[in-house]
């Protein structure tokens, strides 16, 4: 048998291997975001362990950002980094997360959720640009100098903004974007054609390229949590939000969709901006109409479970949804997807998966069509 090895020195990788000498007691820890105390995202390679029963212990799970994220959770694994399945994550005991697996091959990748790499992002951008309705604007750069890509799609007068991965570890958000883009650019789809005629989409598939590459959970390279920086962030520590806000000012939205993942709740749901000062009846109607249309279209989306609705005037105005709803008097929403599984339609093999996230992204176009004329 080859020597068992744990490694994470690659795009999005995150783990600390304290001791890998005993396959039945591989001692691991998740590394915190590079400039903050947040952690929960992990992504590593287990090699040299084909046909060997392995017991992997993440020893610092208790102090992760969302302890509730470990309850009923199963880790994701892949041999080819294309197909990701769930593996036995047997217990969360005494603050430790225990993963048990017997790899079939000498290389197995294990992650908190299926990663979405910088290379896949680049391929996705390149593929969309073959369509005549698509243009790319690099609207700024990150703390570490990476491009902030914004795709412009459609010829309509109404602007819809869609952003994802403010929190880089929420990779399901960019899988959602991939499915959304694939349908939006399908010329055989009448919904997509109509939406491109009525709307100009401004799509930022990855708001946090630095944090994504570094394997961070929630922050950028300077330690900023982007979804606490709207309206208050500065160009030095948070250029990502600054450049998007400047571009929104020039292309004022009628809708903003901010796509995320939730560690604890096993459902797909939308959080609105009900708690902002001056939340209007029209904003409430637009929000409820969109959610109802989405739920009618996709059984993976529901409106029963979610975050408590904020009381009027109590919203944190540094959230994207709160800030944009107030600043542009528009329909602004945060879409949350699970790291675990959708409890309404569980899949014991794959859980909530990249494929299902992509299909949910595609389905959102029907809900957008249902409300676009009233926005």
Report on the architecture of this protein.
The chain has 375 residues and is of the alpha+beta class. It has two domains: 107 residues, Immunoglobulin-like (Sandwich); 257 residues, 3-Layer(aba) Sandwich (Aminopeptidase). 25% of the residues lie in helices and 24% in strands. It is built from eight helices and 17 strands. The strands form three sheets. Strands 11-12-14-13-15-17-16 form a seven-stranded mixed β-sheet, sandwiched between helices. The chain has a five-stranded antiparallel β-sheet with strand order 1-4-10-6-7, with no helix packed on it. It has a five-stranded mixed β-sheet with strand order 2-3-5-9-8, with no helix packed on it. The protein is globular, with a radius of gyration of 20 Å. 50% of the residues are buried.
Question: What topology emerges from the helices and strands here?
Answer:
Layout: E1 5-7, E2 16-19, E3 26-29, E4 43-47, E5 54-58, E6 76-78, E7 85-86, E8 89-93, E9 96-101, E10 107-111, H1 118-128, E11 134-141, E12 147-153, E13 158-164, H2 172-184, H3 190-198, E14 199-204, H4 209-214, H5 239-250, E15 253-262, E16 269-271, H6 281-297, H7 320-328, E17 331-338, H8 354-371
Parallel strand pairs: 3-5, 13-14, 13-15, 15-17
Antiparallel strand pairs: 1-4, 2-3, 4-10, 5-9, 6-7, 6-10, 8-9, 11-12, 12-14, 16-17
Helix pairs in contact: 2-8, 3-8, 6-8
Summarize the structure.
With 375 residues, this protein is α+β, with helices and mostly antiparallel strands. The chain is 25% helix and 24% strand. It folds into two domains: 5-111, Immunoglobulin-like (Sandwich), CATH 2.60.40.3120; 118-374, Zn peptidases (Aminopeptidase).
């Amino acid at each position: 048998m080859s020597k068992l090895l744990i490694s994470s020195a690659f795009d999005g990788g995150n783990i600390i291997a304290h001791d890998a000498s005993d396959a039945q007691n591989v001692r691991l820890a998740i590394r915190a975001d590079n400039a903050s105390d947040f952690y929960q995202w992990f992504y590593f390679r287990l090699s040299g362990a084909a046909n060997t029963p392995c017991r992997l212990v993440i020893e610092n799970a208790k102090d992760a950002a969302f302890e509730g994220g470990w309850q009923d959770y199963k880790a994701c694994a892949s041999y080819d980094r294309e197909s990701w399945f769930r593996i036995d994550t047997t217990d969360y005991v005494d603050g430790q997360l225990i993963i048990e697996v017997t790899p079939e091959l000498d290389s197995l990748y294990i992650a908190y959720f299926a990663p979405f790499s910088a290379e896949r992002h680049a391929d996705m951008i390149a593929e969309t640009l073959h369509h005549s309705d698509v243009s790319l604007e690099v609207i700024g750069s990150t703390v570490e100098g990476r491009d902030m890509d914004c795709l412009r799609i459609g010829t309509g007068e109404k602007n819809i903004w869609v952003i994802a991965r403010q929190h880089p570890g929420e990779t399901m958000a960019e899988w959602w974007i991939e499915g959304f883009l694939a349908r939006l650019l399908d010329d055989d789809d009448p919904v997509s054609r109509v939406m491109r005629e009525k709307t100009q989409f401004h799509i930022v598939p990855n708001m946090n390229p630095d944090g994504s590459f570094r394997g961070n959970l929630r922050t950028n390279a300077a330690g900023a949590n982007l979804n606490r920086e709207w309206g208050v962030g500065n160009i030095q520590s948070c250029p990502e939000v600054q450049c998007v806000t400047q571009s929104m000012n020039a292309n004022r939205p009628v809708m903003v969709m901010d796509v995320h993942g939730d560690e604890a709740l096993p459902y797909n749901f939308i959080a609105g901006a009900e708690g902002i000062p001056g939340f209007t009846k029209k904003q409430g109607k637009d929000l409820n109409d969109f959610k109802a249309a989405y739920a009618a279209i996709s059984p993976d989306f529901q409106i029963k479970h979610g975050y408590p609705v904020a009381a009027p005037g109590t919203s944190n105005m540094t959230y994207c949804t709160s800030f944009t709803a107030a600043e542009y008097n528009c329909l602004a929403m945060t879409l949350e997807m699970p790291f675990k599984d959708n409890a309404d339609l569980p899949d014991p093999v794959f859980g909530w998966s990249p494929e299902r996230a992509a299909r949910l992204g595609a389905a959102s176009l029907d809900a957008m069509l249902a409300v676009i004329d009233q926005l």
